[in-house]
Amino acid sequence: MIVNNSSYPFGDEQFLSVAISIKKDSDSIAMDSDVWDVGGVPRESFVSLWAVHSPRIEDLVARQGRVTEEFIDAVIDEIETYLR
User: Fold this and answer.
1) Using CA of residue 71, residue 54, residue 83, residue 28, what is the dihedral sign?
2) pLDDT digits (tens, 9 = 90+) for 72-84
């Protein structure tokens, strides 16, 4: 899931993202159906706060959808808390 915004350097070439997993952990965030504006995942899924990546545009193969801004904000807040 890509979480960067316009202030992220190289925003058209490289992204800040977090992994989506089907494994639930005490530090993961559930991706309920209401967090998706478009698309979704076929199984119960969770954002893994410890799996932050910075893929380049050529690493992206397909788009699963788009989540709400509120969900992205919640994920970013949780990552910050997790890292502290």
Assistant:
1) positive
2) 999 989 998 988 8
Mean pLDDT of the chain: 86
Tokens of 6: 């316009």
Q: Compute the 3-state secondary structure of the chain and give helix, strand, coil in percent, each to the nearest 5.
A: 25, 30, 45
- Looking up residue 53, the CATH number of its domain turns out to be 2.30.30.110
Q: Are 17 and 48 in contact (CB under 8 A)?
A: no
Residue 48 structural domain: 17-83
Where residue 13 falls among pLDDT bands split at 50, 70, 90? confident
**Does residue 6 form part of some domain?**
no
Average of per-residue pLDDT across 45-70:
89
Per the structure, the count of domains in the chain is 1
